[in-house]
Amino acid sequence: MAALRPGYLADLAGGPDRFFEPPRTACPWCGSGRLTTRLRTTDLLQHKPGRFVLDRCEDCGHVFQNPRLSEAGLEFYYRDFYDGLGEKKLGDTFGGRSGMYRDRAKSMLPYDPAPKAWLDVGTGHGHFCATAREVLPGTEFDGLDFTDGVELAAAEGRVAHGYRGAFPDLAPQLDGRYDVVSMFHYLEHSTDPERELRAAWRAVRPGGHLLIEVPDPESRYARLLGRWWLPWLQPQHLHFVPVANLRRRLTDLGFTVVAEQHAEPHDPVDLLAAVWLALDHAAPREDAPWLPRPPGALGRAGRVALLVAGIPALVLGTLLDRFAVRPLSHRLGLSNAYRLVARRD
C-alpha cells in the first residue's frame, strides 16, 4: 500500500471531477429527455473519493449513471478491485460460489443439453467455467474479460482459451463460433449495452443461445434499501435495464427469448450486504492507498469494536436472507436479478 499511495494521491490531486464525462440530457436507451434522479451515493466498497448519481428515464425505466465515468474514471475505480490488491479477496469470494455456478449452467440444459462451445463474457478468474464443466463435461469453455484475471483463468486451466479485451472489438474474430454465449452480471458494467448485445449476436451461431443475467432495477429491494442495496455497486455499474426493455432489444436484434427467470438467479445476500455496507461506512476506514495516510491505532481499534458489535445484525440479516426471503423472493417482488435465455434465429 505504501508503494501505491503516491500514485493514487497524484491521481486525486486535482479532485475526482476529471473522472466523469459531461452529464447526459437524454436517456441512452430510448433517447427520451424525461430524466429524474434515482439515487445519489458514494463508493461504499472501496471508499474511493467521489459522488455518483443514477438517473431514471421516466419513459422506458432505464436507470443509468449520470454523469458517467470517463475512461480515466473507469481505470481509476476498477484499479485494485478485481486485480492487484483486490485479486485474492475477490478470487476467494467468486471461487466459493460453485452452487450458484452449477445452477447457471443447468439453466441452459432445457434448450441445449450438450453445447460444444461456450463463451463466458466477463468471466473474471474463470470460476464459472471451471464449475460448469461438472454439469456439461463435453463442453469447451472459453472466457473473455478486459482484466488480467482471464489470463490467470487460462493459465490455471479454468478456460480453454482466454480472450483479453473489449467484447465488441474481439467479436469479429469470434464470428458464429459459439453454441452459447453467457453474460453473467456483465452487461451492467458496459459503457454501451447495445453494442455488447450486437457483439453477442455475432459470436453466437444461428440456432445458438445467449444467456444474460443482470441486476433487476425493478426489485422492491432497490427502493427499500436505497443506497445500501448491493447491486447498485457504484461506481462500477453503469446501466440497469428493466427486463421488458432487454426483451424488446433482443427481439429487435434477431433473438427469440425462450426463458425469463427471476426466482432462480436471486442471490440471497441483500439484507446481509446492507448491514455490512452500513457498518463499514460508519466505522473508521481501514488502510487503503488512496487515503493520505494509514489509520492510527485508535482508528483501527474503533473499527474492530464497531464491526464486532455488528455481528448479531449480520447474523440476523443472513438468516432472513436465506430462510425468510429466499423462498418468497419472486412472489414478493424482491428478486435482485433476472435471467434471460435467448435463441439466435
Structure description:
By secondary structure, the chain is of the alpha/beta class. The protein folds into three domains: 8-69, N-terminal domain of TfIIb (Single Sheet), CATH 2.20.25; 84-267 and 335-344, Rossmann fold (3-Layer(aba) Sandwich); 270-323, no CATH class. It is built from 13 helices and eleven strands. It has a seven-stranded mixed beta sheet with strand order 6-5-4-7-8-11-10, sandwiched between helices. A four-stranded antiparallel beta sheet has the order 1-2-3-9, with no helix packed on it. Helix 8 links the parallel strand 7 (178-184) and strand 8. Helix 4 (98-106) packs across helix 5 and helix 11 runs antiparallel to helix 13 (311-325). The termini are far apart. The model has no long low-confidence stretch (mean pLDDT 96). This is Class I SAM-dependent methyltransferase.
Count of runs of 4 or more consecutive helical residues: 13
Briefly, what CATH class of the largest domain?
A: Alpha Beta
User: Radius of gyration from the CA trace?
Assistant: 20 Å
From the N-terminal CA to the C-terminal CA, the straight-line distance is 51 Å
Care to count the β-strands?
11
Largest sheet: 7 strands, mixed
Order of SSEs:
HEEEHHHEHEHEHEHEHEHEHHHE
**Largest beta sheet: strand ordering:** 6-5-4-7-8-11-10
Structural class determined from secondary elements = alpha/beta
Uncertain ranges: none
Shape descriptor: globular
CATH superfamily of the largest domain: Vaccinia Virus protein VP39
CATH fold field value of the largest domain? Rossmann fold
Write down the overall mean pLDDT: 96
Task: Please report which band the strand proportion falls in: under 5%, 5-15%, 15-25%, 25-35%, 35-45% or over 45%.
Answer: 15-25%
Q: Mind telling me which CATH architecture of the largest domain this is?
A: 3-Layer(aba) Sandwich
Helix content bin: 25-40%
Q: Count the domains.
A: 3
